[in-house]
Amino acid sequence: MTKEKKAHSMPSNIFFFVRLLFKVSPLLVIGEFVWGILQILPSRLISVIGVKYIIDVVTSGERLERIFSAVGIIAAVLVLSTLMSWLYREFFWNMEKEKVHYGLNKTLYEKAKKLDQESYDNPDFYNNFILTVESSSDNIQNLLGLVRNYFGNLISLVTISGVLISIDPVCLLIILVFISGFLPLSRKIGNLQMGRRIDNTKFHRRSDYFQRIFYLQEYCKEVRMNDISPLLVERYNDAADDVISNQRRYWKKISSLYMLQESGIQICGFMFALPLYLGYCVLVKESITPGDFVAAFNGAHSIAVSINFLTVWAVAVFSERGKMIEKYREFLACDFKIKDGEKVAEPSTPKEIKIENLSFTYPGNSEPTLKNINLTIKPYEKIALVGFNGAGKTTLTNLLLRLYDATEGRILIDGEDIRDFTLDSHRSRFAAVFQDFQIFSCTLKENVSLDKEAVDEKIKKALEHSGFEKKLKKGLETELLREFDDEGAMLSGGESQKVAIARAFYKNCPYVILDEPSANLDPVAEYNLNKAMTEASENKSVIFISHRLSTTVHADRIYVMENGMITESGSHEELIRKNGTYAYMFNLQAEKYRKEA
Predict the structure, then answer these.
(1) What is the pLDDT, as a whole number, of residue 256?
(2) 3-state DSSP of 496-545
(3) Low pLDDT (below 50) residues in the chain
(4) What are the two backbone dihedrals, phi and then psi, of residue 20, each rounded to the nearest 5 degrees?
(5) Any bridge partners for residue 358, and if so which?
(6) Can you give the pTM of this predicted structure?
């Protein structure tokens, strides 16, 4: 997990994100700078220099035809800048923005792929993870707009300031005094906006969960067959009320600060102090011409808007956005516990697996889940892990796959610690069918191969071994689920499990882990699966977990786990003769089957 580190400054976070954008699309970042100038500078220059020129022509009595020329030039400048902005947005910006969006998301997903399983068990980290992924597109869209407007206002400020200083620098001083006096409020506003967003993420996760229950297929039977709907609606309403209450709580504080800030700057500064000074210059000092008066007032207002944006509004928004980017940086820089070794494992023939003095405690738990586990799996051996729920069977296989790392002890393959190998090469030695397997909204072929490259004949053989016999309209090219295809195939629980099992038969690797492989299968399918597994895994070492002990009968060795420890081991016949926990569990199930028969 991440170590506690000092947060980066707001400018550092902004520049970090701009650099990320620049790596993906340099032209987009440069284009934003140019677009910002085109959007802001022409109209503000016209309001200062253009209007000054026209008024000076009128008051001096010169030929009025010059006014029409000036208006024509002004119109041409506005039309040209608008046209260039439109062409940039329609023919370049939209496409490059999507390119950046997918480029940055790819970076996030590459990082997410390496997340420790433990990360999903940590609510705070998982909240930040969700916030980072969900805000990625929002960060791009908002930051591009902020950078564009910031650069445009900065260029406008420098340009108009030069004009205004040549007329009367006191106007600029008046603006600076009022702006700087209310600048500290912007930081408070930014902190409140960020706090609101973080709290909303937690509440939205709750409301989204209860919302999903009503449309996800796996919940539909439970919802319709039981009276849980009122409870779910109540939970959803509670979460929605929390979101609304949170918004109301922050809105009062933020709106009050905004009102105070805008009242001080706009009313006191720009509607009172500045007009009073300009009036004094015209009526008393007579130090400026009518054209200068209008240019000074418009220029002062233009500078005020730019400074207000650059130092008050932008600081508040950049502060909020900077905090979001800070989480983005934390996520990309996080250092996980499970790290690559230096060696590369070769998926060759099965080797001896030795588990020595293995113990494991889940983060946040005081009691260990596994306690001093010792066992050896010989090459080509088929072993079974059995026991009551919570005994630690699945945890043991998770450690073998390095989804977690052991708290104590070690796991050796062919005498070498699995932590010495790269994660990808180590995991490539295993095929695993999890109890909570997932079917993806892809073709049947892709669901079996779980790879871009697939061999059709090999897939057909794997499906045959798993007992999958459903005839599909498009064969291996049939889309599963209806996420994107209205004609996608919907499989039963047993059919889905057979597809998942086919993955283990398809993958070319020396070790197979099957967690409850027959949980959704009928007795005939279970018998056929056991027979197929024996044939297909002849050249593999197999570890399977099952509560249906008919699956374990033909295992070379059975390990009984209780309370995180191995309490019995041996073949089926040996354990029956011991008349211990295994014999009790097996006879209990056998008696059930005899009664049903």
Answers:
(1) 84
(2) HHHHHHHHHHHCCCCEEEEECCCCCCCHHHHHHHHHHHHHHCCCCEEEEE
(3) 1-4, 596-597
(4) -60, -45
(5) 373
(6) 0.64
